[in-house]
Specification:
Length: about 120
């Protein structure tokens, strides 16, 4: 069931804590759209959720790779659509692969190029 919440935090640790609370309720097939200005803490939010989902390695912005996968308690996809306007015709298939029902997906910059139905 789609839902939307806004959170304003004052520090990275607080952002990660809010994300961890959300992560406790996530299951495969869930898609989390993460919006905010440049430098707002979108990747920090995703990092906090990934830590709560058991990811111990680095969690970085996939701005140039578009998508990054992590192994945690559930498979995780982390997408950054900021550069979506620079992508070619094969990229909708990439997005479909990353938004699969067997994983939790976090999508940064969904307003730039989210597939139909995600906005």
């Amino acid at each position: 069931m789609p839902s939307s919440t806004d959170h304003e935090t004052a520090a990275p640790a607080e952002t990660e804590a809010v994300a961890a609370e959300l992560a406790a309720r996530l299951k495969p097939g869930d898609i989390v759209l993460v919006s905010g200005d440049l430098g707002a803490g979108k990747t920090t939010f995703v990092r906090g959720a990934c830590r709560a989902l058991g990811v111990s390695g680095a969690v970085t912005s996939p701005s140039f790779t578009i998508a990054q996968r992590y192994d945690g308690k559930v498979p995780i996809s982390h997408l950054d659509l900021y550069r979506l306007g620079d992508l070619d015709d094969e990229d909708p298939a990439l997005l479909a692969d990353e938004l699969a029902f067997d994983r939790v997906a976090f999508v940064e910059w969904p307003e730039v190029g989210a597939p139909a139905g995600l906005d």
